[in-house]
Amino acid sequence: MRHVIIQCLLCGSLTFGIWTALSFIYLCHNYVSDWPKETQEATSVWSLDKKLQQIILHGSGTRPKPRVRVKRPNRDETKERGTFLKLAKKFNYTDPNLVHGFFEYGFNAVVSTSLGRERLVPDTRDKMCHRKHYPVSLPTASIVICFHNEEFNALFRTVSSVINLTPHHVLEEIILVDDMSEFDDLKEKLDHHLEMFRGKIKLIRNQKREGLIRARLIGASRASGDVLVFLDSHCEVNRVWLEPLLYAISKDRKMVVCPVIDVIDSTTLEYRPSPLVRGAFDWYLQFKWDNVFSYELDGPEGLTRPIRSPAMAGGIFAIRRHYFNEIGQYDKGMDLWGGENLELSLRIWMCGGQIFILPCSRVGHITKQLFSHSSGVIRAMTYNSLRLAHVWLDEYKEQVFLRRPGLRFIPYGNISERVELRKRLGCKSFQWYLDTIFPELEPSKSS
Fold this sequence. Notes:
This is Inactive polypeptide N-acetylgalactosaminyltransferase-like protein 5. The protein has 16 helices and twelve strands. The protein is of the alpha/beta class.
């Protein structure tokens, strides 16, 4: 009887493994088969990954339509894309290392390992950006990068790209915050390889898992630069990426700026340029990318003109350190991550600041393919969104509950400190935000 049970268990495990592998192969095959062919026109070749950037088209009628300008790839970029497409066809999707990498890290760790600890990415800036010059005297920057169980090479490429492409006189430090990682290569091995950057790196290791929000606060508390620049741990900065951000902040201490976030494909790790978009969100409090209206790109600056953004993605932005502290940093009552970017965006706009995306600053970012969120992450995102709604949306929080009635009965902790912060800063109403900053977010007429 015992042998029969063991055989049944083995058969069940084998069947589950086969179905998992087949499901993953199907997923990856569909993902690759959806890529544009090399013979297609440039607009499809250089469009954003559909799974990452689903641009919202607002209404019709009198609103100006977005200006579409196609940046045609140069010969080197076309050649590079061809190389990556050929590479994709050679992927062995039954390779257990590839499957493990996707489930462990959310992207192709096999390719990441083959790329190594640094590489040169294509310059995706508009040609007009090449003619811009920035003063030598700029504020100094502390780059804060938090990570938890990140793939070693992706993390190291983030660090090495910052070191290699940032003028040393403005790079005060890189602050790495290890949020209780468990992987061995992020311990002694990482310490050993970071020795080459001695003098520019501060490595902080949290003694317990804090989550992205509190980990960033820990990193910011150790910073000494004039400007805080937050990066995700799977980025690669581009040429002249930091100077535009620092220059804009030097002219206005209450300006918060973001680069254009280019796409690093999660399967091939190909670096692709992103179109000009702005950050937005919907009544589900989900961040989205939105079209830039044509009038925002008019004038002599053209495609290099700063783009006013109602919200920011949150993973990559720069803010003056003292201003970050002055406006209340992050909401310390929030858990893990999720919603903190929208909360900070609303607070900046409603309390006297402004957010711009700078087209002449480019940073690549891997959008991880997460197969599921843990129940803890889902709870944190809901909890954080409720704190945002009850502090900042005023009567418009009913628009959120109209779409998700169950949220009315979920606890969201003590928000008295954040309500008091809003009063102390003399912040404007959410109605002002809708009228002035984001009129495209139209409330539902039914209630």
